[in-house]
């Protein structure tokens, strides 16, 4: 575990109930020099979240996405390298700026 992941300790809280979670409750899915992806299952409300942590000019930033993947599924997904951290962030940013309707995706 890198110092980046350790430094992000205080950032990890459940996006649903706000409970602070310990690193021991997370699973490190991917770790690079300046980026980490963690899987968190909240001990209180049992919501699973993917936590993306990156370090940049302005310090540590984190992005949380609620997921229905459990630990094993998330681990499998990342181990197969089907998804890179950059791809997930790209998708997230696309969705954030996307102004259309959900049906536009399906057509
Ligand atoms: Zn929670």
Structure description:
- With 107 residues, this protein is an alpha+beta fold.
- The protein has one domain (3-106).
- It contains 4 helices and 4 strands; from the N terminus they run αββββααα.
- The protein has helices at 3-7, 71-79, 85-97, 103-106, and strands spanning 26-31, 35-41, 48-56, 59-67.
- Strands 1-2-3-4 form a 4-stranded antiparallel β-sheet.
- β3 and β4 (59-67) form a beta hairpin.
- The longest helix has 13 residues, at 85-97.
- The radius of gyration is 14 Å and the shape is globular.
- The mean pLDDT is 78.
- The structure holds zinc ion.
Q: List the ions, cofactors and other small molecules found in this model.
A: zinc ion
Largest sheet: 4 strands, antiparallel
- Percentage of helical residues? 25-40%
User: How many distinct helices?
Assistant: 4
Radius of gyration: 14 Å
Number of E-state strands = 4
Oligomer: single chain
Structural class from helices and strands? alpha+beta
Distance between the termini: 43 Å
Mean pLDDT across the residues is 78
Give the SSE string: HEEEEHHH
Question: What general outline do the C-alpha atoms trace?
Answer: globular
Proportion in β-strands: 25-35%
Query: Uncertain spans, ≥5 residues at pLDDT below 50?
Result: none
How many structural domains in the coordinates?
1
Task: Summarize the helices and strands and which ones pair or pack.
Elements: H1 3-7, E1 26-31, E2 35-41, E3 48-56, E4 59-67, H2 71-79, H3 85-97, H4 103-106
